[in-house]
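I had to read the description of the data format several times before I understood it. Each protein is reduced to its one-letter sequence and a matching series of backbone shape codes. The format is easy to grasp once an entry is in front of the reader. For illustration, here is how one protein appears when written out as sequence plus structure tokens:
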Amino acid sequence: MAQLPKRKIAEKKQLIEQLERTRTQLKGDLGNIQQNLDISKHLESTGKRLEVTIKKHPGTSMAASVVVGLLLSSFAPRSRSVPLLAAHSAYPPLPPQKKAAFSLSKPLFGILKIAFTTAALPLIKKALRKKLDDMVGH
């Protein structure tokens, strides 16, 4: 077997050393990238901050969630219409005045539902307490 010249052997050793340095550098970079892309850590810290904020400012958090809910409910839902049924609908299209009335009634009914539920809770609590007192008393 023919021996390689010393210069080629030295070049190969240099290339091997350079390859090892590059590999270790890439391993370190890959570790840093994995730490930066660890979404669970970011979500966990964000969730903790959100929880602390809600505990500190419950009224503001409720108001913000109501506003976000109203904004989200104002977006038109993604609708799928079946062409056959849409063309042969049993109901005629609504006139613009009724469409406007219906678009205003949706948030109004939501507000009324919240108001009635809020008002009904003390009444229900009072009735349940009276019923419980009657059961315990007799």
Observations:
- The CA atoms of residues 95 and 101 lie 10 Å apart.
- The chain has a mean pLDDT of 79.
- DSSP finds five helices and no strands in the chain.
- The two ends are 110 Å apart (CA to CA).
